[in-house]
Design a protein that fits this description.
binds 2-succinylbenzoate; single chain; binds magnesium ion; 15 strands; 2 domains; 4-stranded antiparallel β-sheet
């Protein structure tokens, strides 16, 4: 695989509505769109999903750009890889920085699939032609959350997630559960609790949640194993699973019954697929997480979600959930809670260059 040129576009877009968690509110989203171009002019696309500030992970748009420009892009340009599987090992001399790594690794997978003239999901061994979508409410107050969930249900979403914190969790979940008695409902705590809250969290069992995501520390695996033993509700880990090794630890300790796999958080397809395979063998279920991302990352999430083990609805919503207009064409569309997987080569979507230009802060080329 001869990679001749790499282009980075740094973009910024306002969300239609602010997205709130107990950690703060996202009003606008910066992102990094990566193009990897071969000697025939074929282009593979990736997206850096770090946020502008380090509220979700230590990586930011700024640190990703630094690592991409100074370290990973030079490594990739002077390498002579023959398959995208070699990119993650090529980056093994770089500690962590998984979102920067994934932005490039995913772009190389897209390019490779296009070189073969096949959809990426088929190259990955995916088996699903339709995937199940899920939406996340990010409203600061109860009434607004109920209104958002009504909107999602009207739009056809069958699985809804709400963000929770110790101050409002019980009231919020009771209100949503009363309004939607049969809904597949789950909660994401983004690390808002400690083990001292165990009795408090046990009270949430009555809401028949599909799972509670990352209740405890962002880097904790052990304490979640103690908590999972106390709860009827399934624990799902997000923040604390950043590698295959973390997944092994969580599985052997019994820390969770679900793992949310995000390409960016784990460093690309090679670690994501090996995590998926391991979880399948060990009886821990997986689904694909979201990052309030633009269309390129959405398209990669769709490809990943076609793998056999992704049998629970993902945090993948329509492009229009967050954006007035996305940077891809066609946009991602959820119909009756489902997304049709594209048949075109690679990730199956093109950059909408007009829109990209509108939202671009700057573009740089490397060769
Ligand atoms: O914890 O899953 C999370 C969004 C940004 C950062 C972290 C998380 C989220 C979400 C997914 O909950 C929201 C989405 O992409 O629709
Ligand atoms: Mg989460």
């Amino acid at each position: 695989m001869k990679i001749d040129k790499i282009i980075l576009h740094v973009i910024k877009m306002k969300l239609k509505k602010p997205f709130s968690t107990h950690l703060g509110t996202v009003n606008e989203r910066e992102g990094i769109i990566v193009e990897v171009i071969d000697d025939n002019g074929l282009r593979g696309y990736g997206e850096g999903v770090a946020f502008s500030t380090p509220w979700y992970t230590e990586e930011t748009v700024g640190t990703s750009l630094h690592i991409l420009k100074e370290v990973l892009i030079p490594l990739l340009l002077k390498s002579s890889i023959t398959h995208p599987k070699e990119v993650f090992p090529l980056f093994s001399t770089v500690r962590r920085n998984n979102m920067a790594k994934a932005a490039l690794e995913c772009a190389v997978w897209d390019l490779y699939a296009k070189q073969l003239g096949q959809p990426l999901w088929k190259v990955l061994g995916g088996t699903r032609e339709v995937i199940e979508a899920g939406a996340v409410a990010g409203a600061p107050a109860i009434e607004e959350t109920i209104a958002q969930v009504h909107g999602f249900v009207r739009d056809g979403y069958k699985r809804i997630k709400v963000k929770i914190s110790p101050e409002t969790d019980y009231e919020l979940l009771r209100a949503v559960r009363e309004e939607f008695p049969q809904l597949k409902l789950m909660a994401d705590a983004n690390s808002a609790y400690t083990l001292k809250d165990t009795a408090h969290l046990k009270r949430l069992d009555e809401f028949r949640l599909e799972m509670i995501e990352q209740p405890l520390g962002i880097d904790d695996i052990y304490e979640h194993s103690l908590l999972q033993k106390e709860l009827k509700t399934n624990v799902c880990l997000d923040e604390s699973i950043t590698s295959l090794h973390d997944a092994k630890s969580a599985i052997s300790l019994g820390s969770c019954r679900f793992i949310n796999i995000k390409l960016g958080r784990v460093g690309g397809y090679v670690p994501a697929v090996s995590m998926h395979d391991l979880c399948g063998q060990q009886g821990v279920r997986v689904w694909c997480g979201g990052m309030i991302e633009f269309g390129i990352s959405r398209a990669h999430n769709i490809a990943l979600s076609t793998l056999k083990g992704f049998d629970f609805p993902s945090d993948i919503s329509s492009s229009s959930r967050y954006w007035k207009e996305d940077i891809i064409e066609p946009e991602v569309v959820v119909e009756n809670g489902k997304i049709s997987v594209p048949e075109a080569p690679g990730i199956g979507v093109e950059l909408n260059r007009r829109r990209l230009k509108q939202v671009s802060l700057y573009t740089e080329e490397y060769s």
